[in-house]
Amino acid sequence: MILNIESDLNRFRNIVRGQVRKDLKRYMSSGEMIGKQGDKLVRIPLPEISVPRLRYGKNESGGVGQGEGEEGDTVAGAGTEAGDQPGEHTLEAEMTLDELAEILAAELELPRIEPRGKKQVSSVRDRYTGIARVGPQALRHMKRTWKESLRRELSGGGYDPGRPTFVPRREDFRYRSWTSRTEPQSAAAVIYVMDVSGSMGKEQKEIVRLEAFWIDTWLRANYKHLETRFIIHDASAREVDRDTFFRTRESGGTLISSAYRAVDELITAEYPPEEWNLYVFQFSDGDNWSSADTAQCMSMLRERLVPRVNLFCYGQVESEYGSGQYIGDLETSFKDDPTVVLSRIPDRTAIMQSIREFLGRGK
């Protein structure tokens, strides 16, 4: 019975994984998963399953529905009160963030990241390295159990080659055993930067929120210790928490250099580049206050930020109010620099391609 349940569970997990892979682009462009995530699990909404209903054909000989009354008359008991009949249901299944990252890597063909920083944290990992006589049924080693049963039958003279039937006893059971080992893990910090001036609307922020979820999912699969920081700016910049980052909207102008100064100060104070793997993801609609400030931004990137990070990624989210000029300035200044990655994100359907562009270099 236990083996049948485990087999059914594994089959169901494979179905879920297949469904997520099939609809990955849809999941990436919607917020269905993000609101239902925990520390290590995410709930996957699967296609709606309709409960079967009986359908009655015409019955000319009387029966149910044949009686007094005219078409349009109110049926006794009908009204607006809550009913007690089942309706349609949406099935949800849990998946670990590591499993989700594996699917993301397979579909987008993402290479594993090679950490560069020396900052190390320790994590405890269980490895199945041996066989024990006791253990939970879920870890029963079937092949070794049958071998032990066969060995006992042979040594006791009870084995009949003409009728090779034998049943494992309790003393034959063998289980996988594990040892816990402390392993060093590289540490990483992700700094998200977003323009929150009036030209960045609700839809633009939602695109950034969706993209940040998938970026975090992939980076957490590569770094067991990951810190995230959030900086917003219009004409001035400040660090905020995650919720404020995605909800704040200002009405002032845009000075991108203020955000770069905030990033520079944060890295200098808390994330020495020789110890940390550093990632900066900037999102904007491409507006900046002046060409003079843009020139200052290029200088700060070249001299202060790009040399100290694994990747500097700029995503330009299309807005009807934004000029879109800034990505062109970056292309001109950093067209041959592999550390700087640029992506145009016209709408939600472009999120998958943007993730591929940002994370496809394995840095």
Q: SSE order, as H and E?
A: HHEEHEHEHEEHHEHEHEH
> What is the strand tally?
9
Mind telling me the C-alpha Rg? 29 Å
Give the overall shape.
flat
For the record, the CATH architecture of the largest domain stands as 3-Layer(aba) Sandwich
Q: Give the count of helical stretches.
A: 10
Total number of distinct structural domains: 3
Spans of at least 5 consecutive residues whose pLDDT stays below 50 are: none
The CATH superfamily of the largest domain turns out to be von Willebrand factor, type A domain
- What share of the residues does DSSP label as strand, in percent? 15-25%
- For the record, what CATH class of the largest domain applies? Alpha Beta
Going by helix content, strand content and strand pairing, the class is alpha/beta
How do the helices and strands line up, and which of them pair or pack?
Blueprint: H1 2-22, H2 24-28, E1 41-45, E2 92-96, H3 97-108, E3 120-132, H4 142-155, E4 175-195, H5 202-222, E5 225-233, E6 237-240, H6 242-247, H7 256-270, E7 277-284, H8 291-305, E8 311-317, H9 326-334, E9 340-345, H10 351-359
Parallel strand pairs: 4-5, 4-7, 7-8, 8-9
Antiparallel strand pairs: 1-2, 3-4, 5-6
Helix pairs in contact: 3-5, 5-10, 7-8
